[in-house]
What we know:
Blueprint (H helix, E strand, L loop, with lengths): L7 H12 L2 H11 L6 H9 L3 H20 L4 E2 H9 L6 H16 L1 E7 L4 E6 H6 L10 H15 L4 E2 H10 L14 H11 L3 E5 L8 E5 L1 H6 L2 H12 L7 H7 L21
Antiparallel strand pairs: 1-3, 2-3, 4-6, 5-6
Amino acid sequence: MTQRKRMSNTQSSSQSKRASGPAATQEEDDDQTFTQPSTTQVQRGLEKLTPAQVDQKTAEVVQFFLVKDQKKIPVRRADLVKHVVKEYRNIYPEIMKRAARIFDQVFGLKMIEIDAKNHMYILINKLETVEGASPIANPTNPKMGLLFVILSVIFMKGGVVGENLIWKTLKNLKVDVGEKHEEFGDVKKVVTDEFVRQRYLEYTRIPHTEPIEHEFHWGQRAEVEVSKSKILAFMGELHEQDPQSWSLQYQEAHSSSSTQPSTSSTQPSTSSQR
């Protein structure tokens, strides 16, 4: 394959083009018109509402998150404001703070902003964060097992792989993207659409390739939820090899905790900036 430079801005551009469309453009426009209320604006807004009204709107936000979380779809601020918060947008930071408290105290979940630029949030299990018991590292259903294999290949190959290698790996495991699978159905759609929408994977076009080629990277959700050290331990058991023998991967796996998005800064800023 011809050499190519993988510039991050090119990847971001490719990703945005892949996900673009009338709906996506409208969501971006909606978010651009939303200005985060200041602390003073929030206080004034609360004075005009009853506690019951604020509690009801908070409950609606919690429900919206939980529905999205069933399919592991990140929640975009633009959707939240447009479809749920609506006329209560002047107290948006307070509603989000209360929702985060409910997730923490009632459901044992932590709200994390995985994309500060586009304001996208996910929920993760607090026990998984503390104990490293990620459902991806310990898959309990076949689809998560499929994802674990793909993430493992990407990690072991340095963080980026061409799609042909992924399809070849899956075929060796009797999962052929050219055939309808009994468990997964359309495998390619699951990998390039579902896992991408859930932000477990990034699937981007490689510039200047003919015929067109794509490559895979870890997505933002994977960076938060998935333990690279567990992947390395799994590979060590699989190949009966000391995980430290993969020196680059070992170093990344045991330093990734300092580079992963912080789980403590989940609350929206109360500044007037967007």
